[in-house]
Fold:
Amino acid sequence: MDQKSLLKLDLGNIFADAVGAEHGVSPAEFDALSGPVADFTRDIQRRRQNGEVGFMDLPYDSTLAEDIESKAGELSSWCENFVVLGIGGSALGNITVRDALGHSLKKQTRSCRSAGRNSPDIFILDNIDPVLISEFFDFIAPQLSRTAFNVITKSGSTAETMSQFLHVRELLARTGGCSSEKQIILTTDPDAERSLLRRIGDSGGYCMYPIPENVGGRFSVLSAVGLLSAAVGGCDIKELLLGAAAMDARCSSPEMYKNPAALYACALYKHYLRDKTVDVIMPYSHHLQSLALWYCQLWAESLGKRDGLKEKNIFTGPTPIASTGVTDQHSVMQLYQDGPFDKVITFIEVDCCRRERVPICENDVEPDLRYLSGKSFNELFQAELTATRCALRDKQRPNCTIKLPEVSARTLGELFMFFEYAVTYSGCLYGVDAFDQPGVELGKKYTYGLMGRNGFMPPALD
Structure:
């Protein structure tokens, strides 16, 4: 198995010699974290071996990958649309893979196209806005019998997803030529004691895939949660998993300077202690815009905690913000450069030299525009990133860069594993449980109460 990692991390602009002693960290401060990182690594790997944390082991389930590839081939033989019904961690990873590896202008139907066949269009219905629901099913109606639905909820009782499931099941039942058993695939907890959806699947004869008990939703993109839609869309999921495995090998090292995820976590944490509590993720790649949204959930839900592991009421956690280069240079960059000194910016840079050269123009143009003639969009895009990175540095705004040779299934797998490990190390640094999400439970309970579910009370209303 080739496990060469392609991702590089450049932390140069987070240090004091680049952005000044007031806003940058010193090498000595970093060195002081080497011992704790080694301890964190041993604890993380101990929890992995004990089966407490499972996302690191997902790249090695070759049996599941082969099963999903087979199912994807069967689905592609008849379906024109593949619809994911899920929300949060059951949707954002699917959206990221679709948008990263598909055609930029296909909007909602940005599926990958593999050699030799057309893949079904991939939709992710991650909201229950009634306007969206109505418009979507009006749109899909002429092709309903050629549409497959993947219902994803680990608990098997998420109100948003289950309402979508009920709607689809009833719609298929009353529409001629449709079959719920053929057209619906369930992805949920394998234990029927814990998952209502699993019990429904058992009694209804649906095809089902498991979500491991030790893998939370925001860490589940490399499980069946994300792999099925990826494979149906034409993604080489074995390459995706190979990239993740390569990063797993790097991030398992107890030596901090050999472990990119630990380094990244330490860089952001050290700045958090300097009141830089906003983490901006800014890919310079149209295809990675959705990755930034996936990152925001991973960061916010893992680190935004009221209680720590040892103390109560610590109310900690950085605020993640998604931006896009170069678009946001002309919107929020004014704030990033001249606003409060409360941010660290992470750029994701994709090697422009590997992309097909797209010329701006070759002919003579107006004098004030001649600097663009004979140049390419590749050169301009790279110049914009370099200029922005340097401008932030010169204005004493800490920033770092994740560098990739290309956006591919392999590098996307690396990015997923890199950030999942980074937030795990961050949890150790902040002293919180990165794998729970108690803060969202009260809203769920109130929703159940408002909808009349037995055992739940609605909130007091004004």
About this structure: The mean pLDDT is 94. The radius of gyration is 23 Å. Residues 81 and 147 are 5 Å apart (CA to CA).
